[in-house]
Amino acid sequence: MSAEETTSGGEAISIAGDEDTAAAAEAPRRRGLFTALRRHLGAVVLVIALVAAAGAAATVYVTQYRQDRVTDATAMGAALEAAKTGTVALLSYSPESLDKDFAAAKSHLTGEFLSYYTDFTTKVVAPAATQKSVQTKADVVQGAVSEIHPDTAQVLLFINQTTVSKENPDGSFAASSVKVGLKKIDGSWLIEKFDPV
Protein backbone atom coordinates (compact mmCIF):
# COMPACT_ATOMS: atom_id res chain seq x y z
CA MET A 1 0.00 0.00 0.00
CA SER A 2 1.37 3.44 -0.87
CA ALA A 3 0.30 7.02 -0.25
CA GLU A 4 1.17 10.35 -1.82
CA GLU A 5 1.89 13.67 -0.14
CA THR A 6 2.29 17.05 -1.70
CA THR A 7 5.23 19.24 -0.85
CA SER A 8 5.03 22.98 -0.54
CA GLY A 9 6.20 23.20 -4.12
CA GLY A 10 3.27 21.12 -5.27
CA GLU A 11 5.30 18.02 -6.13
CA ALA A 12 3.81 14.63 -5.35
CA ILE A 13 6.03 12.38 -3.27
CA SER A 14 5.30 8.65 -3.00
CA ILE A 15 5.59 7.21 0.48
CA ALA A 16 5.91 3.39 0.66
CA GLY A 17 3.75 1.60 3.20
CA ASP A 18 5.01 -1.10 5.65
CA GLU A 19 3.99 -3.99 3.30
CA ASP A 20 5.90 -2.57 0.38
CA THR A 21 8.96 -2.09 2.54
CA ALA A 22 8.82 -5.75 3.73
CA ALA A 23 8.42 -7.05 0.16
CA ALA A 24 11.33 -4.96 -1.01
CA ALA A 25 13.50 -6.32 1.82
CA GLU A 26 12.39 -9.93 1.13
CA ALA A 27 13.45 -9.92 -2.53
CA PRO A 28 17.22 -9.73 -1.87
CA ARG A 29 16.88 -12.37 0.85
CA ARG A 30 15.22 -14.80 -1.60
CA ARG A 31 17.86 -14.11 -4.21
CA GLY A 32 20.51 -14.84 -1.58
CA LEU A 33 18.83 -18.16 -0.65
CA PHE A 34 18.73 -19.32 -4.28
CA THR A 35 22.33 -18.25 -4.75
CA ALA A 36 23.37 -20.20 -1.65
CA LEU A 37 21.44 -23.26 -2.87
CA ARG A 38 23.13 -23.03 -6.28
CA ARG A 39 26.49 -22.64 -4.61
CA HIS A 40 25.92 -25.72 -2.39
CA LEU A 41 24.18 -27.82 -5.05
CA GLY A 42 27.33 -29.90 -5.53
CA ALA A 43 27.45 -30.72 -1.82
CA VAL A 44 23.75 -31.67 -1.78
CA VAL A 45 24.21 -33.94 -4.82
CA LEU A 46 27.26 -35.52 -3.13
CA VAL A 47 25.27 -36.26 0.05
CA ILE A 48 22.47 -37.88 -1.99
CA ALA A 49 25.02 -39.96 -3.90
CA LEU A 50 26.64 -41.11 -0.63
CA VAL A 51 23.27 -42.15 0.83
CA ALA A 52 22.45 -44.08 -2.37
CA ALA A 53 25.87 -45.79 -2.28
CA ALA A 54 25.37 -46.78 1.37
CA GLY A 55 21.97 -48.27 0.47
CA ALA A 56 23.50 -50.22 -2.41
CA ALA A 57 26.29 -51.53 -0.16
CA ALA A 58 23.75 -52.65 2.45
CA THR A 59 21.76 -54.47 -0.24
CA VAL A 60 24.88 -56.27 -1.50
CA TYR A 61 25.82 -57.22 2.07
CA VAL A 62 22.40 -58.65 2.85
CA THR A 63 21.85 -60.46 -0.45
CA GLN A 64 25.35 -61.72 -1.23
CA TYR A 65 27.92 -61.43 1.55
CA ARG A 66 25.59 -62.52 4.35
CA GLN A 67 24.31 -65.40 2.23
CA ASP A 68 27.91 -66.58 1.82
CA ARG A 69 28.39 -66.29 5.56
CA VAL A 70 25.28 -68.36 6.36
CA THR A 71 26.31 -71.09 3.92
CA ASP A 72 30.03 -71.27 4.71
CA ALA A 73 31.97 -74.13 6.34
CA THR A 74 30.79 -73.14 9.83
CA ALA A 75 27.14 -73.20 8.76
CA MET A 76 27.66 -76.56 7.02
CA GLY A 77 29.23 -77.96 10.18
CA ALA A 78 26.26 -76.78 12.27
CA ALA A 79 23.78 -78.34 9.84
CA LEU A 80 25.70 -81.63 9.77
CA GLU A 81 25.91 -81.77 13.55
CA ALA A 82 22.17 -81.02 13.90
CA ALA A 83 21.36 -83.81 11.42
CA LYS A 84 23.57 -86.31 13.28
CA THR A 85 22.29 -85.42 16.75
CA GLY A 86 18.66 -85.39 15.62
CA THR A 87 18.99 -88.72 13.80
CA VAL A 88 20.53 -90.47 16.81
CA ALA A 89 17.72 -89.10 19.03
CA LEU A 90 15.13 -90.13 16.45
CA LEU A 91 16.30 -93.75 16.13
CA SER A 92 17.34 -94.49 19.71
CA TYR A 93 14.87 -95.42 22.46
CA SER A 94 14.37 -97.78 25.34
CA PRO A 95 11.14 -99.12 26.92
CA GLU A 96 12.20 -97.77 30.32
CA SER A 97 12.48 -94.18 29.05
CA LEU A 98 10.13 -93.91 26.08
CA ASP A 99 8.53 -90.57 27.02
CA LYS A 100 11.90 -88.97 27.64
CA ASP A 101 13.39 -90.47 24.45
CA PHE A 102 10.46 -89.39 22.28
CA ALA A 103 10.50 -85.88 23.78
CA ALA A 104 14.23 -85.60 23.06
CA ALA A 105 13.65 -86.67 19.46
CA LYS A 106 10.76 -84.24 18.98
CA SER A 107 12.97 -81.32 20.05
CA HIS A 108 14.97 -81.91 16.84
CA LEU A 109 11.95 -82.05 14.48
CA THR A 110 9.62 -79.60 12.79
CA GLY A 111 6.68 -79.32 10.39
CA GLU A 112 4.80 -82.30 8.99
CA PHE A 113 7.58 -84.68 9.95
CA LEU A 114 7.13 -83.75 13.62
CA SER A 115 3.40 -84.51 13.31
CA TYR A 116 4.11 -87.81 11.56
CA TYR A 117 6.71 -88.84 14.16
CA THR A 118 4.38 -87.99 17.05
CA ASP A 119 1.56 -90.05 15.54
CA PHE A 120 3.81 -92.99 14.57
CA THR A 121 5.55 -93.26 17.94
CA THR A 122 2.26 -93.04 19.83
CA LYS A 123 0.39 -95.63 17.76
CA VAL A 124 3.15 -98.03 16.64
CA VAL A 125 6.52 -97.65 18.37
CA ALA A 126 5.41 -97.16 21.98
CA PRO A 127 3.09 -100.23 22.12
CA ALA A 128 5.70 -102.45 20.39
CA ALA A 129 8.56 -101.19 22.54
CA THR A 130 6.55 -101.73 25.73
CA GLN A 131 5.11 -105.17 24.87
CA LYS A 132 8.23 -106.65 23.28
CA SER A 133 10.85 -104.71 25.25
CA VAL A 134 12.34 -103.25 22.08
CA GLN A 135 15.42 -101.15 22.60
CA THR A 136 17.32 -99.47 19.77
CA LYS A 137 20.56 -97.59 19.58
CA ALA A 138 21.74 -95.66 16.51
CA ASP A 139 25.18 -94.34 15.61
CA VAL A 140 26.07 -92.11 12.69
CA VAL A 141 29.11 -93.59 10.92
CA GLN A 142 29.56 -90.98 8.20
CA GLY A 143 27.78 -87.88 7.01
CA ALA A 144 28.08 -84.97 4.61
CA VAL A 145 26.12 -81.90 3.63
CA SER A 146 24.95 -82.31 0.03
CA GLU A 147 23.17 -78.95 -0.28
CA ILE A 148 22.88 -75.84 1.86
CA HIS A 149 21.01 -72.53 1.64
CA PRO A 150 20.48 -69.85 4.30
CA ASP A 151 17.37 -71.57 5.71
CA THR A 152 17.45 -75.14 4.36
CA ALA A 153 19.96 -77.96 4.01
CA GLN A 154 20.19 -81.56 2.79
CA VAL A 155 22.47 -83.98 4.65
CA LEU A 156 23.34 -87.56 3.73
CA LEU A 157 24.01 -89.85 6.71
CA PHE A 158 25.20 -93.46 7.01
CA ILE A 159 23.82 -95.11 10.13
CA ASN A 160 24.40 -98.26 12.12
CA GLN A 161 21.49 -99.34 14.31
CA THR A 162 21.36 -102.12 16.89
CA THR A 163 18.00 -103.46 18.09
CA VAL A 164 17.44 -105.74 21.10
CA SER A 165 14.08 -107.25 22.12
CA LYS A 166 12.49 -110.12 24.05
CA GLU A 167 12.30 -112.07 20.81
CA ASN A 168 15.90 -111.32 19.89
CA PRO A 169 17.93 -110.78 23.08
CA ASP A 170 21.22 -111.12 21.18
CA GLY A 171 20.22 -108.15 19.05
CA SER A 172 20.16 -107.42 15.36
CA PHE A 173 22.32 -105.02 13.42
CA ALA A 174 21.28 -102.87 10.46
CA ALA A 175 23.22 -100.43 8.32
CA SER A 176 21.33 -97.81 6.37
CA SER A 177 21.61 -94.41 4.77
CA VAL A 178 19.17 -91.53 4.97
CA LYS A 179 18.75 -88.14 3.38
CA VAL A 180 17.90 -85.64 6.10
CA GLY A 181 16.14 -82.41 5.16
CA LEU A 182 16.77 -79.56 7.58
CA LYS A 183 15.11 -76.22 8.09
CA LYS A 184 16.56 -73.34 10.11
CA ILE A 185 14.04 -71.98 12.60
CA ASP A 186 15.02 -69.26 15.10
CA GLY A 187 18.68 -69.99 14.45
CA SER A 188 18.44 -73.78 14.98
CA TRP A 189 18.55 -76.51 12.33
CA LEU A 190 15.56 -78.86 12.71
CA ILE A 191 14.72 -82.02 10.77
CA GLU A 192 11.74 -81.63 8.44
CA LYS A 193 12.33 -84.64 6.18
CA PHE A 194 13.84 -88.06 6.82
CA ASP A 195 14.02 -90.26 3.74
CA PRO A 196 15.82 -93.64 3.44
CA VAL A 197 18.15 -93.76 0.44
Automatic annotation (TrEMBL):
Subcellular location: Membrane
Broad class of the protein's primary localization: membrane
Domain of life: Bacteria
Transmembrane segments: 40-62
Keywords, ordered alphabetically: Membrane, Transmembrane, Transmembrane helix
GO cellular component: membrane
Protein name: Twin-arginine translocation pathway signal
Species whose genome carries this gene: Mycolicibacterium rufum
